[in-house]
Amino acid sequence: MAYLTLNKTKLNKNFQFLKSMFDDSDISWGVVSKILCGNRMLLGELIDLGVREIHDSRISNLAKIKEINPDIQTVYIKPVSKRNVAKMVKYADVSLNSELTTIRWISEEAVKQGKMHKIIIMVETGDLREGVMGDHLIEFYSQIFELPGIEIIGLGTNLNCLNGVMPSTDKLIQLSLYKQIIELKFNKKIPWVSAGTSVTIPLMLHKQLPKGVNHFRVGETLFFGVDLFEEKVIDGMDGDVFTLFAEIIEMQEKPLLPSGTLAANPQGEVIEIDEDLYGRSSFRAILDIGLLDVDPKYLIPEDGEFEILGASSDMLILNLGENPKKYQVGDVVKFGLKYMGALSILNSSYVDKVVSE
């Protein structure tokens, strides 16, 4: 059976790198745990690092975090649906919001539960996912800051989440100015400008982060050590916290081209024939993992001498050429993972998860 490992030593190295960086700049931060898909064992490893604030987009995952350690500050990081407001208020201490109606529902539920629920107002800064338009922000704030059961603790934004718009110093300065305007107009303190996600870290590394930004929400860089501006691992961090291991379940020398009448495969693809390959063969390996678990485009073969040919629902097909490494049935093949690949595999109940040193 295929399995995924999380290397706790490398995860700790990445955590300590980020913690030191944020501590030196007096910036608060929390870890985005959604990639772990609520796996209790892996969440426990995260909490054991010393994380005291965890963000997730699934309420059930926040519930597990509270079961493991109720003192962790939990943050719900997407707009909540009406039917889930009560559960969200129960398990999330903080939520990111951009809808007036929703915040009123949260206020009513917080009062019912006898809680003070904290809110970060999300502001649109160009990527066109969630967020209040800047021109409407003052009016928006005026309608919610006195609601019972609600405490506005920050203004936030998300970039590079939908249309690929990258953060910039100018955009983050604008968000900080919104905070100052609101504080002056309403005589209310807003503690956080939560403009930092993994994609914002390069601005910090290059000392281009405006001083007003004082809160980060970090997932991808913690688990992959990546600079998302340059798409490379940051010096001092590790990019291979996760490793996928898949077993060879068939090994045969086969023609390079299929034979017979061709139609679309189950993924809707029609194979194009390269006539130069007629009469040629290679060794093909079938691995015990497939599209049900991960899209092959998110896999990074550790062995650069083979090619991923494709996948069906439960099998991954490799072209090993002349098989110079002498792979056999029962051997295990290793892969690094891109973020979306790790997310898919961690969400698959068919792939075992293992913590390694």
From TrEMBL:
<keyword id="KW-0663">Pyridoxal phosphate</keyword>
<feature type="domain" description="Alanine racemase N-terminal">
    <location>
        <begin position="10"/>
        <end position="224"/>
    </location>
</feature>
<keyword id="KW-0413">Isomerase</keyword>
<dbReference type="InterPro" id="IPR001608">
    <property type="entry name" value="Ala_racemase_N"/>
</dbReference>
<protein>
    <recommendedName>
        <fullName>Alanine racemase N-terminal domain-containing protein</fullName>
    </recommendedName>
</protein>
<dbReference type="InterPro" id="IPR000821">
    <property type="entry name" value="Ala_racemase"/>
</dbReference>
<dbReference type="Pfam" id="PF01168">
    <property type="entry name" value="Ala_racemase_N"/>
</dbReference>
<dbReference type="InterPro" id="IPR029066">
    <property type="entry name" value="PLP-binding_barrel"/>
</dbReference>
<dbReference type="GO" id="GO:0005829">
    <property type="term" value="C:cytosol"/>
</dbReference>
<dbReference type="GO" id="GO:0030170">
    <property type="term" value="F:pyridoxal phosphate binding"/>
</dbReference>
<dbReference type="GO" id="GO:0008784">
    <property type="term" value="F:alanine racemase activity"/>
</dbReference>
